Amino acid sequence: MKKKIAVFTTGWCCEILSQFLTGMQSALKDEGVDVFLFTCYPTYVDTPAIKHGELNIFTLPDLHDFDGVVIFGSGLDFHDEIEKIMVRSREAGIPVVMQGAKHDGAVYIGSDNYVATLAMCRHLQEKHDVHNIVFLAGTADSLDSELRLTAVKDYLKESGRSDDLKEVFYTKWENAQATRFINEYCKSGRKLPDVFICANDGLAMETTITLNNNGVKVPEDVLVTGYDLIDDSQIFDPSIASVDQCFTQMGEAAGRLWKVIFAGKEYSPSVIVPCEFVPGESCGCHEFRNSDKIRRRVGREAFTKRAANTYFNRKLNLIDSTVLSCLTYKEFAHKLHGLLADNHAFEGNSFHILLDPNFGLSINDPNIRLRKNGYGSHMEVIFSSEDGVAYDGEEFQTSGLIPGYREDGDNHLYVFLPLHEADESFGYIVFKDCMNKIYEHTLQTYQSRMGLVFDKFRHALSLDLINKRLLEVMKRDPLTNVNNRMAYEDKEVFLQSEINSGSAVKFAIAMFDVNNLKLINDSMGHDAGDEYLIRCCRLICNVFKHSPVYRVGGDEFIAVLSGEDYENSDFLLERLHNRMSQYSNVLPLPDDYISIAAGIAEYMHGEDSTVQDILKRADERMYQNKAKIKGEK
Asked: Which residues partner with 419 through β-bridges?
């Protein structure tokens, strides 16, 4: 039976995360270990509800079912979440390896940022005569960011140049924060520093772009450096001078550490991987690496990636159109399953969409709320394929995490992503062996689009049902519970369109007028009058049971006859008359008294040009019938 390691982090650090996981899997390839990555994409600027919805995926696994936990701290800077994971790990009695940050009870694994930063400072001073420095930091509680800043301060202090650090600005790892800072800096007219040292390559590239937009050239006017040495920074123009933290080697070290832990041997509480500063074009050094060679390689790959992105976007658009065209939840589940069964080239042969049963139930019942904390005991299986084998059940026990999962065979990487809207959980999706998707950020795009289209579908269907119910209420007579005048007017519009189209549609209009309503209201009160109207309406509905009936006035009703009622209209009209009381205007009237005048007119194709033509004939015949009834007293 294979071991299982749960990895927790956000997916924004996609390149270094994929390097770390690749290294760890490589070191564990002969060990029999599956890696379960629970990841999401919250940002510091998100609302608390959105953050909660994203980070909820961390609650999915029962850590008692795992052999170890990795917290990838370079991508997870939410300290409350880290503490929760640590508590659960202790409860489960399993070891924790924490990358990029230190925590009591966890084995620390990281890179020697401090030494590499000292090397960066030495290079900037000795090669480029840098004196004035602005440091764009991450967050004040980030171990990596603060260690880099401390190294800069220590180097300057030892050199007797502490005043060279002119400013420290905390970006919270948001590129937009760096953009605002650089724009304000340039507009202020302040003298530029000699270098902007940025806490990662993303901030360094954003800083370079914003400086250029303000007419400041890098490296001619100011130098820029970063950290992580990601591919994007190497092909960037200018290539970013950066610290290579050797994340692949760090992952390999983590894998070797797990082998020691699983073997029950003693291990060090801290593992440090050496890293190095690599000069680049952004600090004015062109001779240290061949960035053009990397750019040419990426250029060759651009066509293939563009074609893949085109297919990917078409797939997402197809999912959007398929889901949003559905009129019921049952249709949604059926069509989405069919779409993925026919074409899952992007998702792969191992892919799963599992939804909370309340997702579908909440569409029809607003009193059913979606879960905000954790996941339910069971999930509804919308689509599930493991190694090309479809799961044959409609429900799945959530604790199992993956339908069809096997605890033997080759090692695999499973990636779990949340489906949600704000803090309301829909369920989760699972990809398998998808390192390229982690690296290229396509998982984030897929997850966010799926969550968005599911939410649009749910709200659209809920609103549609609400609107239908409101329309039903608006078009329903509250006393008799038959259709009202508004409903009849809509029906009349439809009938008129049939006439205008030249259709030989067969229908008739029956008009009814309740006799003696005023007499009963005046003598016995309106409650008695209401009861009388209800009795009369019930008789009309019982006789013309296949036709819609409308109350169009206080004592007036209309029925539109078609089909069987149309064919038997004369017989039904006679039946109505036979079931009425003997007309009387003498009080007291019997308790079951019913008297209705009625007239029916058929649509005459080729003769009637409007519904009003038919209605007029039916009205005339109804008044003729009323006169006849009153004459028979």
From this structure: 427
Domain boundaries, the chain: 3-110+349-451, 111-247+267-293, 485-631
CA distance 64 to 387: 26
280: nearest Cα among 330, 337, 215, 232: 232
CA distances from 418 to 70, 261, 427, 429 (A): 19, 30, 6, 7
User: CATH code for 485-631?
Assistant: 3.30.70.270
- Among 30-39, 267-276, 454-463, 604-613, the least confident range: 454-463
Whether 106 contacts 44, CB under 8 Å: no
CB 291 within 8 A of CB 239: yes
Q: Going by DSSP bridges, is the β-strand pair 96-99/68-72 parallel, antiparallel, or unpaired? A: parallel
Kindly report, residue by residue over 195-252, the tens digit of the pLDDT.
999 999 999 999 999 999 999 999 999 999 999 998 889 889 999 999 998 999 999 9
Spatial separation of the C-alpha atoms in residues 77 and 44, rounded to whole Å? 9
CATH superfamily of 111-247+267-293: Response regulator (3.40.50.2300)
Residue 466: pLDDT band with limits 50, 70, 90:
low
Residue predicted with more confidence, 311 or 624: 624
